[in-house]
Amino acid sequence: MFLPFFQTLREEGVPVSVREFLAFLEAMAAGVVFADPEGFYHLARLTMVKDERHIDRFDRAFARAFAGLDRITPDQVLTALDLPADWLEKLAERHLTAEERAAVQALGGFDKLMDTLRQRLAEQKGRHQGGSKWIGTAGTSPFGAYGYNPEGVRIGQDQSRHQRAVKVWDRREFRNLDGDAEIGTRTIKLALRRLRRWARDGAAEELDLDGTIRATAAQGWLDVQTRAERRNAVKVLLLLDIGGSMDPHVQVMEELFTAARAEFRHLEVFYFHNCIYEGLWRDNRRRWDAQTPTWDLIRTYGPDWRLIVVGDAAMSPYEITHPGGANEHWNREAGEVWLRRIRGQWPFNLWINPVVEKDWGYTRSTALIRDIFEGRMVPMTLDGLARGIRELRR
Amino acid sequence: MKRFFTLWRARPWLTSAFVLACAATLFFAVRFTVQTVYWSTHRDMPVRSWMTVGYVARSWGLDGREIDAVAGLPVPQVKGHPQTLAEIADDRGVPASEIIAKVEAAIVTLRAEQDAGE
């Protein structure tokens, strides 16, 4: 019965295994949820989604697999199932609260509710809005859409407004956590966190509780021990492409910069335009009169620094392959020479490209830089960053 | 050892039969132990293209021929030996993932039937 749902999940890219799907079926067979769309959604998500990055894909698959299901009337379901009335009444007694039963009774019982709906549909000819009787929009009748009635039947409305006819999956609250989605400062921080390498350095200012207990027990008097604070020892050299085709990516660059600043104690940031040549700069307003020679960087920062270059790699191919190809100045050595030089100095290197990965093939220069970086180019997505961080840790 | 040869000279047929019985017992005991250990750690294995239907059936505790029937796959006799899912896909000119999906759907169906029958 749920096989199409399983297939839809796979098609949407949710890595659900047969075992997980069988666990979900077992839970359904055991009656963990019954006649509760939201409960059903949560049970399916709980059993089949292992990673928060896949929740949004799950929501999309769920919406696709069960599209239109909420438009099937209880009457149609009951007719199709041909269930005995007394059995249904017993079931209702078990699953409905006293208030819910009273609300249904307020309309003269379930049969009456359905009869009234059928009758009003037959009587009503045109569209109706407001009021408390006719089926339409924005009213308080138990039938219709965009209105309010606690025991209502929704007709002709795509999404829930009062969350009574619930479609949680339509809210897509986990959209930002999708591995392929564009990311924000928080998610970048989460990704960068994987690059942590803890080390204790600096002055011993932190209370060492374990050491204090051990020393006190050994000495017989209170012997307070301190130690150096634990810090992220990873050193990062961040080179950011700025201006021109990078302008549309300013926001995501800012977010990356903010996240990197918060995450790495040893962080040096330099800017370049399009490709790296003989000079980089720290302050973009003084890009012409306060450049730092790239050779100085190579001499100053050792091979233990991680090099992260962020740029869209979109430029004329001559800017990479030919001396004098740069579009703002005369470069004596080709961009490729400098790129290979910095890669040689910092073996842990990575190029992050904010352009969507599927568009990389349209730009020749992107392919060139990707080759120079031996494939170590990743998109600015959560998945891409995670992949890149893995490369940086090797 | 000397005793064994003495016995063998005195009752060659009986001793040979005894040795054969011992060898067979040892063979089946080893096979049983290896299979028990192997399959206890390979239950409900994710379906992969290198697997045969028999392997999948064994791993999931199902009947291989039923999987063949539900998934619409050829029985092993077609080629005289069991085919892997990749070979079946090659024969049909479809991606292996398509055959894997069919086998997975068959597993779900058969397991659901099995559970319903319990």
Mind sketching the topology for me?
The complex is a heterodimer of chains A (394) and B (118).
Chain A (H helix, E strand, L loop, with lengths): L2 H9 L6 H12 L7 H12 L6 H11 L8 H8 L3 H11 L2 H9 L3 H14 L12 E2 L5 E3 L7 E2 L13 H4 L13 H8 L5 E10 L1 H11 L6 E7 L2 E7 L8 H14 L2 E7 L6 E3 L9 E3 H7 L5 E5 L7 H4 L13 H11 L3 E5 L10 H9 L4 E3 L2 H12 L1
Parallel strand pairs in A: 1-2, 2-3, 6-7, 6-10, 10-11, 11-12
Antiparallel strand pairs in A: 4-5, 8-9
Chain B lengths: L1 H9 L1 H29 L12 H8 L3 H8 L13 H8 L3 H22 L1
Describe the structure.
The complex is a heterodimer of chains A (394) and B (118). By secondary structure, chain A is an alpha/beta fold. Helix content of chain A is 42%, strand content 14%. Chain A has 17 helices and twelve strands. The radius of gyration of chain A is 31 Å and the shape is flat. Mean pLDDT of chain A is 75; it is low at 125-130 and 132-166. Chain B has helices spanning 2-10, 12-40, 53-60, 64-71, 85-92, 96-117. Chain B is built from six helices and no strands.
Considering DSSP H and I runs of 4 or more, what fraction of the residues of chain A is helical?
40-55%
> Percent of residues of chain B in beta strands?
under 5%
Number of helices in the DSSP assignment of chain A: 17
Mean pLDDT of chain B: 87
Strand content of chain A: 5-15%
First-last Cα distance of chain A = 46 Å
Task: Please report the two chains with the greatest interface, counting residues with C-beta closer than 8 angstroms to the partner's C-beta.
Answer: A-B, 12 and 13 residues
As laid out across the biggest beta sheet of chain A, the strand order is 7-6-10-11-12
Q: Encode the helix/strand succession of chain A as letters.
A: HHHHHHHHEEEHHEHEEHEEEHEHHEHEH
Distance between the termini of chain B: 55 Å
Q: Determine the CATH topology of the largest domain in chain A.
A: Rossmann fold
Describe the structure in brief.
Chain A is an alpha/beta fold and 394 residues long. Chain A is 42% helix and 14% strand.
